[in-house]
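Blinded run. Sample ID left blank on purpose so nobody reads anything into the name before looking at the predicted structure. Input follows.
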Amino acid sequence: MGYFTDKKILIIGGTGTIGQKLTEEIIKQNPKVVRIFSRDEYKQFVMQNEIKDKSRLRFLIGDVRDYDRVERAASGIDIIFNLAAMKHVPACEYNPGEAIKTNIIGMENVIRAATHHNIETVLFTSSDKAINPANSYGATKLLAEKLVQAANYSKGTARTKFVVVRFGNVMGSRGSVIPLFKKQIKDYGEITITDPKMTRFMMTLSSAVKLIMEAAEKSKGGEAFILKMPVIKLGNLAEVIVEETIKKLNIKREDVHIKTIGLRAGERKFEELMTKEEAEFAFDLENMYVVLPMYSGGIKEYYSKFKSAKVKSYNSSDIDPIEKEEVRKLLKSNGLV
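Blinded prediction complete.
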């Protein structure tokens, strides 16, 4: 028995890397049904063929931008995970109106549908780029976070708890640099990096999914959960991927070049997981931080048994990145190289 046993679950954006892994883990707890909602019929076809236990899965074509479709998908559901997003930084920078439709209006649609159906839990996956945002993607995620937190206080008689989980970069997810670097090495004998000194908070796929599931179960409503994760320097990551990939492809090291191309539109060298202002309202749960909303009400009393977080900005520029060999070990242990 687990929190998801006998529950009816809707995963919006469920055909993505995180959505698929989340589905696999939830199925182990014997839910009544898991509805996979996405607009990509091909990815749904692939997912249907890859997941062994299909008896509890239902696949729904739809777009989070379409309220009526979201509302129908949420009917009879206990828990909603909203993983749908436009998340490619340059794409959002050049198409901010589209990012608003998916990341902000889409989240608003989920909130409306959840309160309409009196759903138990809604969990939204945000990003470290939402903190002091320097790009359109981060700005849309920040506003979506605000919508989620505000929903706890404007839901009327609905029982729904609305929760945020804030991610760093998920290693190996679709569109991330690891599969991109490997493909570049194979196809071109060259990888392109923005800046070798760039640092990022990195989390494994399994730790990301574990955080999502734990937050859905333990949250009270209104919190933002942030996993403690290592900082990795892009130059070290690139070198490890080159060294490990050339072994498998039987390529000489001198035949692969690392080219620095500079920051792309909307990118920055460092990322921030939690601001100093947020840390004023944060608690340290050992493996993660939880940031309470300013109007935390009764939940502050619940978290007061934990120690307060240190009041400071949690920025990747202020944290020592893990050593190159630690990066190698982390990638190998997760089957990424």
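Unblinding after everyone has recorded impressions. The two ends are 35 Å apart (CA to CA).
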